[in-house]
Amino acid sequence: WSADGRFAYAADSAGNEISQVSLSGRVEKRLTVGPRPVGLTRAGQRMIVANSAADSISILTREKQHLLPAGRVPYMLAITPDGKLAVVGNRLPTGDASDPASSATVTLLDLRLGNPTVHVRLPPNSTNVHGVAVSPDGRWAYVVHNLARAMLPTEQIEFGWINANAMTVIDLQRRRRYATILLDRLNEGAANP
After folding, report:
1. Burial 110-126 (b: 16+ CB within 10 A, else e)
2. pLDDT at 191
3. Which of 2, 85, 104, 123 has the smallest CB count inside 10 Å?
4. Cβ-contact 188, 158 below 8 angstroms
């Protein structure tokens, strides 16, 4: 939503743009961004957009658009309450797929342009980030994702041993992974976070 509540913004992934929509449902303006925008949010007067097909983040201001790198296939994002940090969940692992530690990352993007970006690795074989949230105090990020067992033999499918659902907690002050919690029930297979 816009700061004054007069407009909603929607990502048009096929059109590579963000649509500004009035409360009546009419598209008032279209803003061109990177390829396949998916997640978007607002931080003050800036619009933050995850360009999933370009592994980048667009930061739109009234004057111009900044393009910053993210991990592989940035998907969902959230902003800390102070508006200084974007937490971007990337869907695909980075690096060599044969590496047992290969995993998706969470990009911590300092919105004070020019400051370094940090990529926090999720647990090995993590992929497919579904959602990102930030605690009201801005201290923690919560990332819901799949945790594959890509390096183990396929067995006990009925218990969800091929792919589990998990939530990873990230310490935003220390810029590192704090804990990962499995969400599935052992006897009921995979959940849907």
Report:
1. ebeeeeeebbbbbebbb
2. 55
3. 2
4. no
Instruction: Enter the DSSP assignment of 16.
Output: T
| Residue 138: predicted pLDDT | 96
Q: pLDDT tens for residues 109-130?
A: 988 766 678 999 999 989 999 8
DSSP bridge partners of 105: 121
Q: Which residue has the tokens 């497919």?
A: 128
Residue located via tokens 């792919």 = 163
Task: End-to-end CA distance of the chain: give it in Å, rounded.
Answer: 25
Q: From CA 98, how far away is CA 70, in angstroms rounded? A: 22
Supply the pTM of this predicted model: 0.87
Question: In whole angstroms, how far apart are CA 133 and each of 10, 126, 139, 170?
Answer: 19, 18, 11, 10
* Distance of alpha carbon 173 from alpha carbon 139, whole angstroms: 6
Cβ proximity of 1 and 7 under 8 Å:
yes
Strand partners, 171: 140, 176
Q: What's the farthest any 2 CA atoms get from each other in the chain?
A: 55
Q: How many CB atoms lie within 10 A of CB 171?
A: 14
List CB contacts of 28: < 8 A, sequence separation 6 or more. Answer: 7, 20, 21, 22
